[in-house]
Structures are given as C-alpha cells and as structure tokens.
Amino acid sequence: SSGINAEYGGVAGIVAARYFKDVFRVTLYEASSTIGGVWQYTKDKNITKHTPMYKNLRSNLPKQLMTFRDLQYEQDSPTFLTHEQVMDYLHSYCNKFNISDVVSFNTHVSCVKPDTYSGDVKWIVSTANETQEVFDAVAVCTGRYDTIDFPQVPGLDTYSGKYIHSKEYSSPDLHEGEHVLIVGAHASGIDLTIDLCEYGVRADISHRKPAPCNGLPEGVIQYKQPVLFEDDKVYFEGDDHGYKFDTIIFATGYGTNLDFIHPDCLIQTDVLPRPLYKFTLNPKYPSMAILNQCYLAAPFILSEYQVLYFRDILLGKIHLESHDFLLNDARKLLKRFPGDHLKYQYSLSLEQFGLYSELADKCGIPLDFENDINALCDLYDMVVSERNSEPSKYRNKEWELNRENVTYQMTRDWNVK
C-alpha cells in the first residue's frame, strides 16, 4: 500500500502525523500504549519506567521554545512547564488534529528496509507483531533517549553498592534518609541534585568539569570523576580515599537505538545516525527522514520544520540536488567541531535558529516567529546562561515578549518574595 510511515508517537511522531495525514495515507507506529514519548510519566512503582520523566521535572526550556505553530499553551501557564502541562498540551494537539486516527499503538518496529527492486524506492517496514507493510516514505521519530549510557569505570560491574541510571529516577521521597551521589553534571545531573536536596536528601555530585558547578544547594560536595569502584566504595580522581553512598545515580546520558534501520538504508546508526542532509534526510534515499537527532536544540520547533521540509520534498515542491551533492553536504555536518567526539557533531545551540529559518524559507512559509527570531535566540541564550549560573532559581522567572521593542522581558521573579 502506498503511504507514509512515521515511527514513535512522541513530539516528532505526532507533528509528522499531523502534517502528513492531510496529504498522504499515514500510519504512525507507536511502541507504547499512548502518545507523548519521553513526556510519559508513570507513578506506579511496579511498572518499569520507560522514559526519563520524574515526579518533579519541569522543562529546562521556556514554553516559547516548546510550542508547535498552531497551538498555544494556556495563557496563565508558567514559562517553565511541569511535565503534566507538556503532556496535556501534546494530548490537546493530538485531539485538535485527530492524530489517534492514524496511530497503531503497542507496535514495535523491528526493521525498516528500502526495496529498490522496481526502480522506485519503497520501504518495507516490519514489526515485532510479525506484520509487514510497504510505504512510499518513512520518517523515523524515535528520538535520542532510548538506551542508557553508563561510564566505563573499572570495577563498576562488580560494585556491591546500589546504583541506577537517571532514567530510573522517579521521586526524591524514595531516597529519604539516604546519602546519594549523582555522577554527571549536565542538565539532568544538576536537576536531580537540586530535586533531592530540596526534599532534604543528602546529595553530592561527581563530574569531570574543570571548574566547580555554580549555584548548587548549600552542603553539596563536588567530587572529581569516579576512577574506580571496589566492593562498596567509590574512588575519585586524585583522591586515595574510598567513599560509600547509599545510592549512586548515573546522569551520564543516553544512546540512540536505531538497530531497526537495516544496513541497506546506508545509514550508520551507532553514536548518531549519519550521514543526514540538513540533519534530516537520508542522502541516498531522500524519501527517508530521521528527525530530532540534534543536541542543544528545541525539539518541538526542530521537528516541526523538519517535517514541513520533508513533506514538501515528498510533494515535489522542493527540488533536491544530486545524491552526491547531498552526501558531501551531509558529511560536512560530521566535521563541524574537529577533534570533538562524534556525538557532539549535531550540537546546534544558537545555530538552531538559522536552521529553522533556512527550512522555513525552503518551504516558502513564514517562520511563525519570523518577527521575533532574534528575540527568541536571545531568550534561549539568556536562559542557558541563567541555567548555568543559577540552576535552582532560573525556572522561577516568567518571561514574556514585549511586542513594542520585540524583546523578551522578565515579568516576574518568584525568587524575590
């Protein structure tokens, strides 16, 4: 059957379904029983957690960077949203565009493979339920939070103490009375340290940053990175003393599980999917897109413009250059930061706004924040800077766009009583 297949009903999956369903026949395969992707949170302690969501999580990006083009959050919602508010938004979006009409829930995709036998490229999509369907195009929307990464530290495999990955963290009350060590000082490591301390749990942090982290709660000890686990003790770089903790939480990141992408797709899937033209398209088979694989970007906005771009390519509205051109261009994206690890080559940060402008321009549509893209860029920059300097306070500020001079201004600081 002809049509478009999108996998995984998270942010990218539902926005893909929304734009494709009006012009193509669409199937959205979703492995779980509901939409929401990483924003799903289960309180039930007997159910294995499948997402990084935890009880007190709030977004670390302002809501202005977490909206789709044609649905706003409630007027009185805070700048930094709770996970419940984001999930409500995603459900509202699905209801508004009848996304559930095209979703096949509890369907795990086991293989995506191109079929070039007839001359035209078709896509054979197999599922764990042993079904197989043929599509004209495929969008992979599985995101970047599938597999958990633990550091390779000697002795960890025989360490007798308790440890978990941050993906398994659910609520600070489960650690009441414990002494907890968080390993890793990126966004989630800092947030979990603060979440535990605010509940009264004794929490320390270990990281490999050259300087101490700013703005952590009083009493938090910052250790260098762990270099050895022995029996029930952990040893840190430059320190011969062994330390004991009740629980160690590894906030050491995620890997992408794209094993279902068949080698015939000509996409390497370890570390990050590559090569990708404009961070989006398979250069050899541009009827395959892999969405939302960039770091330091706004997933809602990124996936929406990627989807609009992909849709216009499939509709023949955008003419692509030769395969060789696309491939060479895609390979350049893997050398953006010479000397850095491969996984950081898709980091965007402030460059994301140029990408959104470029994709919107190719689609011939106005950026929905065209007038204030510089303001949004500034807001992102300010929030990231505040997040680094005052991680326990930056979410307590409200930001709104001043229409007269097109800048974001702080309208309320809840830290100031």
What would your notes on this structure say?
This protein is an alpha/beta fold. The chain is 22% helix and 20% strand. The chain has seven helices and 20 strands. The protein has helices at 11-20, 83-96, 187-199, 299-314, 323-332, 352-363, 373-389; strands at residues 4-7, 26-29, 103-104, 109-115, 122-127, 132-135, 137-140, 147-148, 162-165, 179-183, 202-206, 222-223, 226-230, 233-236, 242-243, 247-250, 254-255, 288-290, 397-402, 407-413. The strands form six sheets. A five-stranded parallel β-sheet has the order 3-2-1-7-18, covered by helices on one side. It has a five-stranded parallel β-sheet with strand order 9-16-10-11-12, with helices on one face. Strand 14 (233-236) and strand 15 form a beta hairpin. Helix 1 (11-20) packs parallel to helix 4 (299-314) and helix 4 (299-314) runs parallel beside helix 6. It is globular and about 65 Å long. The termini are far apart. 39% of the residues are buried. The model has no long low-confidence stretch (mean pLDDT 92).
